[in-house]
Amino acid sequence: MSTGSAAPQAAPARGVSIDDLLARVRDGHRPDVDETERLLQAPIDVLSRAAALLRDEGLERAGRPHVITYSRKVFVPLTTLCRDRCHYCIFVDTPGQLNLLRKPAYMSPEQVLTVVRQGQALGCKEALLTLGDRPEERWPEARAWLDEHGFASTIEYVAHIARLITAETGMLVHANPGVMHPDELATLRPVSPSMGMMLETTSRRLYEEPGQVHFGSPDKDPDLRLRVIDDAGVAGIPFTTGILVGIGETVRDRAESLVALRDLDDRHGHVQEVIVQNFRAKPRTAMQGAPDADMHEYLAAVAVARLVLGPDMRIQVPPNLSDPRELGLLIAAGIDDWGGVSPLTADHVNPERPWPHIDDLAAQTAAHGFTLRERLTAHPEYVSDAAAWIDPALHAPLRALADATGLAADVIPTGAREAAAAPATGGTPVPAASSARRTSSSSTPDPGVRRLADAAASDPLALDDADWTRLLHATGAELDALTAAADDARRYTVGEPVTLVRNRNLTSTGFRRAGRTGTGEFDLADATAIAADAAALGATEICIQGALPASEDPSGYLDLVRAVKRGAPGIHVHAYRPLDVRDLADRAGLGLAGALAAMADAGVDTVPGTGVKVLSERVRGLVAPDDLEIDRWVEGITAAHRAGFRSTSVLFYGHVETAEERIAHLRRLRAIQSETKGFAEFVPIPLPGGDVPLVAGRAPLDEHRAMVAVSRLLLSGSIAHVQIPWTRVGRESAAALLRAGGDDLGGTLYDGAVLPDAGIEQGLELPVAAAERIARSLMRPFRLRTTDYGVVSAGVAA
Fold first, then answer.
1. Which 8-state DSSP code applies to residue 294?
2. Which are the contacts of 466, defined by CB distance < 8 A and separation ≥ 6?
3. Whole-angstrom Cα distance, residue 278 to residue 300?
4. Is 417 a residue whose pLDDT tops 80?
5. Residues 261, 254: Cα–Cα separation, whole Å
6. Beta strands in 314-353 (DSSP E)
7. Would you tell me the crossing angle of helices 591-602 and 578-587 to the nearest 10 degrees?
8. Secondary structure of residue 782 in the 3-state scheme
9. Distance CA 584, CA 595 (A)
10. Residue 129, CB half-sphere, CA atoms under 13 Å: how many?
11. Fewer CB within 10 Å: N-end or C-end of the chain?
């Protein structure tokens, strides 16, 4: 919201220098389109200094100096059908693609509440409803779904879902349904305290010229989009909009777009934030070969947005669309908001770009002199003046979530009907109807496994052990229902991408400081050469695990990591199980904390959570008596998390364990995660040579499907990623398990040319092309990831 109070000033002469123009802007001059175009081409360091000063002035005036805000949200992709054909969009599906993906035309209320309730438990206060523009006007399938469920339009369904979310969870909805007419804005205002729609650009060329990004997309008419933003101002709706940089627009187009948005806010004061978003090319789109937005031009657009829109406008950039190393440059360019960031759901519009962890974003923000604070979907200025800007129907839920300054209070949202009566089995709340129109096919839940699976997806902690055991024993149609529910839980949280890390194993039991004497052995020089070879193959991770022989000095654990870093300074070292760490701690006299500190100093980045089969002393005694005692394993992994290491987690199944012991293992992992937030993934692994099914005669693949599905459901909202161990089940079965709730294929496990026998899984490689084929067979996108599920940066292992 800009104040609009600066008196009009005479425009500076066209011949004045950039420095003079910036001085006038600092004094309150509002640059016109010509001046804005000049600014966009000025040196970025000069622009950033001026923009940062203006931002700081605005934050001081707002009473929150040196504060950058974000909204803790869940992303709800209500429908991926759309009537537009934007050339850069990967969000949209056709009805045929939906059938292949086994996705519904629209998310049901139950599916929405399943996701939103998990976000509520994680402290999310915003539910972002994103969808395609008016799909019923292009696709008969969309029209048929709306007719069947009693809705006149997609917008009417959005309003129903928004009302349901706030009533059931207390969370506030930010509606982002594309182009809206005045009557539709009025329909949504009582259920959505803020709304949004990107302007993107005012360029008519990109809309009218064949081959350009918006050609054939009726809702991308810039005049239409400007009218929607204006109508939102007339309706008094806090509105989010912005520009997209790098889609073929000219510098002049950017200048015109920024000035147009300022003019609209001058008229109504309703533009609560302007997003400056950088284009990122996506596979399977018409623009997949186009270059990403130039970083220099992007930073200039961010800084100039601040200079044009003034100190009181909130300027937002999406943190997941930039490399973490670039976030400081964006802060320096004058931003004051990161937008919505989710601890649960993927960015379904940019699935190749995962959100940063909120703690990491806070640390990045603090490193540049700012404090990260949570806000609501409506910005503080509008929350504090709710009588003018927010519909009275939303005042009570708004007050429940806001602090005295209009920012988010440190509370968990609570819905008005959250304590709906629960059925006896499992005690799971049943979504209550929030209007006369019911959208489910029946008012009574179906009995059996499907009901339990749906209840598990909504609230994993509500089921008791008997319920989970029943799910683990599912067969036939019941197993299909279980895996479908788990796959929906995967789809609407972590999203569609199938991920893979390029890595190599190095088995530290083979380390010999004195030199290699047999198969599988290596010395420090070998470790350096192995790391350099892996980096040359494109690996971003070296995984090191295994206890050193008792004859080796325990300092070898640390020297081995240093040797790897010498060979590949930028590579991620994923090293040492709790058993290995305990060996280092005890034999080197360091203690557990000292051993972990020494590992961090040597260059260890994350740790494997292996070295345990099932978290049961009975099972350990029967299967792996040499493993760490269960309490010592828990102590070790918890200490690693507290020391700042993230880890994997595992369960080896199919041997002497019972179904109840599997469930107890998953529950304990979830409890550890609740305490430490340190697990990045979970891997359910069939124990080699075990092959003992829970259900007599059940096929091995069905045994794995049940285990993966239950893992996804029980850990949902806790441990985000479920990895499929393709080395144990094979590639064909791995594809089937990715349809049972899995989202990751682990690593490539490169052998390399240098001592391939130094890796425990030698001879089992998954080339990137093969992983891509698996994803493609499932109609899902493929993404290379870092060890901790971030975006791979160019040259990371060099």
1. P
2. none
3. 11
4. no
5. 11
6. 314-316, 337-341
7. 110
8. strand
9. 6
10. 36
11. C
Dist. CA 773–CA 715, nearest whole Å: 28
Sign of the C-alpha dihedral computed for residues 91, 93, 99 and 101 taken in this order: negative
Q: What is the pTM of this model?
A: 0.89
| Residue written as token pair 């602090």 | 403
Residue 708 reports pLDDT greater than 60: yes
Distances (CA, A) of 714 to 31, 113, 452, 485: 55, 17, 12, 12
Which residue type occupies 351? P
Is 541 strand, coil or helix?
strand
Amino acid at 313: M
Name the residue with higher pLDDT: 196 or 8. Answer: 196
602: tokens are 């040597």
The pLDDT mean for the chain works out to 92
pLDDT tens per residue, range 712-733: 999 999 999 999 999 999 999 9
Place 425 in a pLDDT band, splitting at 50, 70 and 90.
very low
Question: Is residue 683 classed as helix, strand or coil in its secondary structure?
Answer: strand
d(CA 586, CA 598): 13
Contact by Cβ (8 Å): 489, 741: yes
Q: Following CA atoms 297, 301, 302, 308 in sequence, which dihedral angle do they give, to the nearest 10 degrees?
A: 160
DSSP string, 176-238: E-SS--HHHHHHHTTT-SEEE---B---SHHHHSTTSTTTT-GGG-HHHHHHHHHHHHHTT--
Beta strand 782-784 with 194-196: parallel, antiparallel or unpaired? unpaired
Residue type for position 611:
G
Angle (CA) 120 123 128, round 5°: 60
The whole-number average pLDDT for the span 361-371 is: 97
Band (pLDDT 50/70/90 cuts) for residue 763 is confident
CB 303 within 8 A of CB 41: no
Instruction: Give the per-residue pLDDT at 796.
Output: 42
Are the CB atoms for 503 and 747 separated by under 8 Å?
A: yes
User: Residue 405 contacts by C-beta under 8 Å, 6 or more apart in sequence?
Assistant: 63, 64, 380, 384
Using CA atoms, how far apart are residues 504 and 544, in angstroms rounded to an integer? 9
Residue-wise pLDDT for 74-129, tens only, equals: 999 999 999 999 999 999 999 999 998 889 999 999 999 999 999 999 999 999 99
426 has a pLDDT exceeding 50:
no
**pLDDT-derived band of residue 416, with 50, 70 and 90 as boundaries?**
low
For residue 443, count other CB atoms closer than 10 A to its CB: 8
In 438-516, alpha helices (H) = 449-458, 465-472, 476-491
**Nearest C-alpha neighbor of 645 from the set 711, 577, 555:** 577
Q: How far is CA 775 from CA 386, 720, 739, 771, in A?
A: 47, 19, 11, 6
Of the candidates 262, 344, 263, the residue with the CA atom closest to the CA atom of residue 304:
262
Q: Say how far apart CA 86 and CA 286 lie, in whole Å.
A: 9
- Which ranges of 310-430 would DSSP assign to H, the alpha helix? 327-332, 358-367, 380-384, 386-389, 395-401
Give the three-state DSSP class for 334. coil
Residue 500: strand pairing partners:
784
- List alpha helices for 573-623, DSSP H: 578-587, 591-602, 617-623
Please, are residues 736 and 459 in contact by the beta-carbon 8 Å criterion? no
Q: Exposure pattern of 102-139 as b/e (b: 16+ CB <10 Å)? A: ebebbbbbbbbbbbbbbbbbbebbbbbbbbbbbbbebb
Q: Say if residue 14's pLDDT is above 60.
A: no
Considering just the CA atoms, what is the radius of gyration of the chain in Å?
A: 27
User: Which of the four pLDDT bands, split at 50, 70 and 90, describes residue 447?
Assistant: low
- Three-state SS at 173: strand
Cβ neighbours around 718 below 10 Å, total: 22
C-alpha 779/C-alpha 282 separation (Å) is 15
